[in-house]
Amino acid sequence: MSEPNPKSRRRYDRQFKEDAVALVRGGRTQSQVARDLGIGAWVLCRWIQKAQAGLPQDAPKTLEAETPERRELRRLRLENEHLLEPRDILKKALGICSAQVPAHVSQ
To answer: Rounded to whole angstroms, how far apart are CA atoms 39 and 12?
Structure first.
């Protein structure tokens, strides 16, 4: 399996963030809300701090700001990465198998 790309983190819209903060304000614990929503506790804590400071929740820098060409380029890069993964796995397997074959057998 490939490691998660740090640049491809999940993005949450403003309404989701406000709803999560409302759940905590409604009496549920931060850890319980974070676990139920599948988000990190530190992310939820940051949203709560923003709400307590009276700051609006940030809207994600979404695809709306992207041009169609940039969106297509990003999609193709992800597809390329996905297609290269099986090839890389097979190359590693071939290297392992080749290293295990005795020298006198290959002649």
So the answer is: 10
